[in-house]
Amino acid sequence: MPDEPRCSGPSPVGCNVRGCPEGQTCVDEGCAPSHCGCDPESGAWYCTEDCEGGTCVPDEPTCSGPNPVGCKTQGCPEGQTCADEGCAPSECACDPATGAWACTEDCGGGTCVPDEPACSGPSPVGCKTQGCPEGQICADEGCAPSVCTCDTDTGHWLCTADCGGGTCVPAP
């Protein structure tokens, strides 16, 4: 049996037949033939003229965790607003070579902060903190807390249990 002619290089057939190297995926993009053979007389590759062989593309990069880009690019969850507080990058991309996030070194991305407190009505804190309307004075009569804050999770006022906040009474 005579030596078979040898075609130079690997077969140009698409990856649907031969597969892809590690780190790549076969997709139906580009144009690669679905079948190729080696011409026994010339030693040249001959292939179908279709484009159904598939081409190899790099796997999608995999970086751990969510993209650390600021909220000006990706928005905030419900109940939060994007603010110019803190420091978050304005752009980030996954580096396929390292699997690490590569981000700009600016702080222009914005950070998510809770929406304004949802507590209804004015704070029940005493007048020693917030004063009294015109024509009234702050007195130690009655019982009003000295400190109150709005719990943004529940929408309720959280106040100290003391009565040292003062109450407004008519001016003498």
Going by helix content, strand content and strand pairing, the class is mainly beta
Distance from N terminus to C terminus (CA atoms, Å) equals 124 Å
> How many discrete domains?
3
Tertiary shape? rod-shaped
Arithmetic mean pLDDT: 86
Order of helices and strands: HEEEEHEEEEHEEEE
Based on CA atoms alone, the radius of gyration comes out at 35 Å
Main β sheet profile: 2 strands, antiparallel
* DSSP strand count: 12
Measured as a percent range, the helix fraction is under 10%
Query: Can you count the helices?
Result: 3
Low-confidence stretches: none
Q: Tell me the strand percentage band.
A: 25-35%
The main sheet orders its strands as 1-4
Describe this protein's structure.
This protein has helices spanning 15-18, 71-74, 127-130, and strands spanning 24-27, 36-38, 45-47, 55-58, 80-83, 92-95, 100-103, 111-114, 136-139, 148-151, 156-159, 167-170. It folds into 3 domains: 15-58, no CATH class; 71-114, no CATH class; 127-170, no CATH class. It starts with 14 loop residues before the first helix and ends with a strand. The strands form 6 sheets. It has a two-stranded antiparallel ribbon. It has a two-stranded antiparallel sheet with strand order 2-3. The mean pLDDT is 86. It is mainly beta. The chain contains 3 helices and 12 strands, in the order αββββαββββαββββ. Strand 10 and strand 11 form a beta hairpin.
